């Protein structure tokens, strides 16, 4: 079943068109990746889905409903979690407090506790550092915290913007393994990456975006073996 559908999305920053007639489908249970070079429009696509950028035209169909006119917080409450580029955790708050912030809309204390335990199952490191201030954590730990915080709201769709950025290769491996694990447990994931090789390896399907337009779409493995993609993104 289609969970999210972008239909003919056109987004602008002032007079500059960042997204041109974007069509993307994300099916339930999939990892879909969006790859492309710097400035191609990857982050803008996620921001458009989460309501931070309002498209001039086009539709965002989520669970059968057009959510394009909703505000960011309403879209989040519908179950779309956005982990932005650069993590943006609360640096003065502890790990525990950061996670609690992710569940701000949840009233049930037991549910909050259960979700926190689930986050700790994925990221044992966070449990070890439960009282540490977010800002003093390593880049990889902050990324784990940002993903953990997103999980606290119990999303149906998890959108990750460049989770591998600035991390050591071994940490990148760990993060990608966790993304796969989350997906195996049923989470639908939309993954934006410059690290095309790793993203395509774990993705069911991928979209290639270039100067605001979708250039190619296909299965992760098919795209990985495509000569043009190899030259442009996997060199
Ligand atoms: P990167 O990996 O560098 O973030 P990206 O593929 O995510 O690249 P976007 O950040 O979506 O690209 O940017 C798409 C285009 O929109 C670029 O030309 C960029 O300069 C422009 N852009 C992005 N944010 C703004 C903004 N706040 N104001 C004006 N232009 C912007």
Automatic annotation (TrEMBL):
One of its GO terms (biological process) is L-amino acid transport. One of its GO terms (molecular function) is ATP hydrolysis activity. InterPro entries: AAA+_ATPase, ABC_branched_ATPase_LivF/BraG, ABC_transporter-like_ATP-bd, ABC_transporter-like_CS, BCAA_Transport_ATP-bd_LivF, P-loop_NTPase. The keyword Transport applies. Keywords: Amino-acid transport, ATP-binding, Nucleotide-binding, Transport. Residues 4-234 form the ABC transporter domain. CDD domains: ABC_TM1139_LivF_branched. Transmembrane segments: none annotated. PROSITE patterns: ABC_TRANSPORTER_1 (PS00211), ABC_TRANSPORTER_2 (PS50893). Belongs to the ABC transporter superfamily. This is ABC transporter ATP-binding protein. It comes from Gottfriedia solisilvae.
